[in-house]
Design a protein that fits this description.
Length: about 400
């Protein structure tokens, strides 16, 4: 018998027991699906986060009361119990950092409705109190008009710069510069319009207004408000020096003693990505453990099915041996059947996992990235499972005595 004939006989045997073969493949598919689905989603989210880090400008880091990403619950109360970063401290910090290191102060309020004449936005507009450095810190471009300036902040002028979504809702096809809009019972004169930046994780980055932070604090009170500070280093090489300077200046304005720990958080693009990778790693390990358990259970199922097949086909094996089939031919045929069951199930699991990843991409608005490494690894593991759990039944079939096999009823 040549290899092609052995291969044909193996697949013919699988096709003869379609339901049994399909159920065995399904067990393999579930194990592969669990890890491929999770890793497809994680790969897409990781790529989206890394590309989405453009929301922070080049060489920019953030100082805040809370960490940028916090997946744990144990230390949450510690962050809430910290003092707020008030405007006096933030403004003093900005002064001490100097003009060579631009500092942006910002505070945000969401869920507002902006109106112009009879036009209104949805009640999901953000109002950001900030200063002249916001656009550079968050990588926004001015499309029309002017940016906020230090005079607007110093005098708390009722002016605003519109995000692209708000501008298109209130002023479709026309300029907004110089017009009065109303938000939360307050009038603002539009002085600028921003270029569109697009969506990130399904949320628009253009649905907001910028107004001087002093104006924002006058309207919504300074009590209970913590200000976020963005700092932009002059260059990539000066980033670490700027971070060290910022920590020292912040400790000074907060009145911390040398032995006191920092009561604020400094976050960079790398720290945010590292925090995501940490939780993604835990999820991946969990998916791997679940997948390993499912695959081992499926491997036992493959062995069981193949042993049943050997028992059912004992007389067939005796006939084949009596007309010249070698022990090697029988061994290879049954191994092919076991590996085929595993690999076809693995392909089904990979396909289902990628489809779930595609669904996640549609829901969360990120690009699908096919996890080639995990897919190939999953198929390789399926092949190993087929060989490992199929070898004993194949060896048992190949070792049958042809005389005894022919007598089997």
């Amino acid at each position: 018998m040549n290899f092609s004939e052995t291969l044909r006989l193996a697949f013919a045997a699988l096709a003869a027991n379609k339901l049994r073969s399909a159920l065995t493949m399904l067990g393999i598919s579930v194990g592969v699906f669990s890890v491929i689905g999770v890793m497809t989603v994680i790969s897409g989210l990781r790529a989206q986060i890394e590309s989405g880090m453009s929301t922070l400008g080049a060489n920019t880091f953030v100082i805040d009361k809370f960490p940028a990403v916090n997946f744990g619950n144990g230390d949450r109360s510690r962050f809430y119990n910290r003092r707020n970063i008030d405007f006096a401290q933030a403004n003093r910090f900005k002064e001490l950092m100097g003009d060579a290191t631009p500092v942006c102060l910002q505070i945000r309020r969401g869920g507002s409705t902006a109106a112009y004449l009879d036009r209104k936005t949805n009640p999901n507009v953000g109002l950001i109190g900030t200063d002249e450095n916001y656009l550079a810190s968050l990588s926004y471009d001015l499309a029309l008009g002017r940016n906020l300036d230090p005079g607007d902040v110093e005098l708390g002028r009722p002016v605003c710069v519109l995000g692209a979504d708000v501008a298109s809702s209130l002023f479709p096809g026309e300029t907004a510069i110089g017009h009065l809009i109303r938000l939360d019972g307050q009038n603002y004169t539009v002085i600028g319009m921003l270029a569109a930046k697009g969506a990130s994780f399904g949320s628009s980055q253009d649905n907001f207004l910028l107004t001087p932070i002093t104006r924002w604090l006058q309207i919504y009170s300074r009590a209970g408000r913590s200000i976020k500070i963005s700092v932009q280093a002059p260059s990539a090489t000066a980033l670490f020096a700027a971070q060290d300077q910022a920590i020292g200046v912040m400790r000074l304005v907060r009145g911390l003693k040398p032995e006191d720990p920092n009561d604020f958080e400094l976050s960079t693009n790398d720290s945010i990505i590292a925090a995501f990778n940490q939780i993604a790693g835990v999820v991946a390990i969990g998916a791997f453990v679940i997948s390993a358990i499912a695959l081992v259970a499926s491997g036992v199922g493959v062995m069981n099915i193949m042993l049943v097949s050997v028992t059912e086909r004992t007389r067939e094996i005796g006939i084949r041996k009596s007309i010249g089939a070698r022990q090697r031919n029988i061994l290879v045929q049954f191994l092919i059947e076991a590996v085929a069951l595993s690999l076809i199930g693995g392909v089904g699991g990979v396909t289902a996992g990628v489809l779930i990843g595609d669904l996640g991409a549609v829901v969360l608005h990120y690009a699908v990235i096919f996890p080639w490494f995990w897919a190939l690894t999953g198929l390789l593991v399926c092949g190993v499972i087929g060989v490992t759990f199929g070898f004993y039944p194949a060896w048992k079939a190949a070792s049958l005595d042809p005389i005894e096999a022919l007598r089997y009823e």
